[in-house]
Write a structure and sequence with these properties.
The complex is a heterodimer of chains A (116) and B (110).
Chain A: E1 5-7, E2 10-13, E3 19-24, E4 31-37, E5 43-50, E6 53-56, E7 65-68, E8 75-79, E9 88-95, E10 106-107, E11 111-115
Parallel strand pairs in A: 2-11
Antiparallel strand pairs in A: 1-3, 3-8, 4-5, 4-9, 5-6, 7-8, 9-10, 9-11
Chain B: E1 4-6, E2 11-14, E3 19-25, E4 30-38, E5 44-49, E6 55-57, E7 60-65, E8 70-75, E9 84-92, E10 99-100, E11 104-109
Parallel strand pairs in B: 2-11
Antiparallel strand pairs in B: 1-3, 3-8, 4-5, 4-9, 6-7, 7-8, 9-10, 9-11
Classes of the chains: A mainly beta (116), B mainly beta (110).
Chain lengths: 116, 110
């Protein structure tokens, strides 16, 4: 039973390029959460999605960042016109139900984004 | 004030030692509390939940003091494999987000 999968594991972009991060939740999970961990910082919640719906995006920067979780395929976190400050580890988590039981959030290995 | 605060350490202890980590949280509406473990450059993994009455899992004991908004983790008989960063995590039942502390770094030495 595969866990949460993220790809790519490492991504290098130049300033101004676009970054696309993918997350495939665990089988049977329909709830996806994205978190960002800046260097020397704790993980910060970004967005919570269910299939085809954004439920809570209170942690998303207002510009350049977007997320989706289509009916088919992985969840995608998209960062347009990346800047150096976007360099971080981006973790995806999934759960089978809404986040009432938080210990059901299982984390993927993360994507490490480096912006040159 | 940050929502979840931890002493960053590092805590350097010899094998077999007992070590304790503390954490404070600012949102009195928080209802769920956890300790996660994060190894270098890897994903966080749930270590244990923290219950009001305190709970134990092998060498690990967690305590919660709601009045002081304080959480603790005690590790007895430290192993080399316990070396990691320990993350204090808090959540309100009405929200979806896990609120992470920055973590406390532990290094267990031979």
């Amino acid at each position: 039973n595969a866990g949460v999968m993220q790809n790519p594991r490492h991504l290098v972009r130049r300033r101004g390029q676009e970054a696309r991060l993918r997350c495939s939740p665990m089988k049977g999970h329909s709830h996806v959460y994205w978190y960002r961990q800046l260097p020397e910082e704790g993980l910060k919640f970004m967005v919570y999605l269910q299939k085809e719906n954004i439920i809570d995006e209170s942690g998303m920067p207002k510009e350049r960042f977007s997320a989706e979780f289509p009916k088919e395929g992985p969840s995608i976190l998209r960062i347009q016109q990346v800047v150096r400050g976007d360099s971080a580890a981006y973790f995806c988590a999934s759960s089978p139900t809404a986040s009432g039981k938080v210990n059901e959030q299982f984390f993927g290995p993360g994507t490490r984004l480096t912006v040159l | 004030r940050k929502e979840v605060e931890q002493d960053p350490g590092p805590f350097n202890v010899p094998e077999g030692a007992t070590v304790a980590f503390n954490c404070t949280y600012s949102n009195s509406a928080s209802q769920s509390f956890f300790w996660y473990r994060q190894d270098c450059r890897k994903e966080p993994k749930l270590l244990m939940s923290v219950y009001s009455s305190g709970n134990e899992d092998g060498r690990f004991t967690a305590q919660l003091n709601r009045a002081s908004q304080y959480i603790s983790l005690l590790i007895r008989d430290s192993k080399l494999s316990d070396s990691a960063t320990y993350l204090c995590v808090v959540k309100t039942d009405s929200g979806y987000a896990l609120n992470f502390g920055k973590g406390t770094s532990l290094l267990v030495t031979p």
